[in-house]
Amino acid sequence: xxxxxxxxxxxxxxxxxxxxxxxxxxxxxxxxxxxxxxxxxxxxxxxxxxxxxxxxxxxxxxxxxxxxxxxxxxxxxxxxxxxxxxxxxxxxxxxxxxxxxxxxxxxxxxxxxxxxxxxxxxxxxxxxxxxxxxxxxxxxxxxxxxxxxxxxxxxxxxxxxxxxxxxxxxxxxxxxxxxxxxxxxxxxxxxxxxxxxxxxxxxxxxxxxxxxxxxxxxxxxxxxxxxxxxxxxxxxxxxxxxxxxxxxxxxxxxxxxxxxxxxxx
Length: 265
Description:
3-methyladenine DNA Glycosylase II, Chain A, domain 3, 5-stranded antiparallel beta sheet, 4-stranded antiparallel beta sheet
């Protein structure tokens, strides 16, 4: 099954809204979750129709169902969370003995042992809830080290290097190639803060994926005369493996990349 980012790359990216979603990336996430058929996009190219046949996105193969099952399997462990201690460890705000507020990709969620809801009172997509719970279930994370590492420096990352490069960094680099102002605006709308790191990058922004989970985006625009393509490096804090498992890191990176490109004006 294709991920939301892979599907998004095949969509027209016009954000026309005729599919019922306000953005093409929002539609891509519905398709990936088995909640919509690719053919619901009225402006899908012939090439994309061949790459995204409706029969590949039926309910039996629904990614949404897989995530829902994974979320259910997490709940016994969630029941054992010490909410006050968890809030203290992960930089969340204690709402009461049984609930906490935590920010995730510049949004605030309320977390209990039964469910997660956003600021509008709605439950997020299952994989978002899984990421948040997986984060809060990590044992005894240390404070952020403020030392940046590449994804490939994360232990056991070798199996996911290609996914991180292709589904995260390349998605951002290709989308914003030749558009430095565009990536700066998108980063700021996503809550990024300009980085003071020295270097030859054209844009640098720090993010907080979670309160204690910083990330640094460095963007190098294409240089046509030197045959240099646009590049993006998404660096993580050295402590990142103590805050998320490797699979969740990749899903988080894909979610961030998808939101960033869909935020572009």
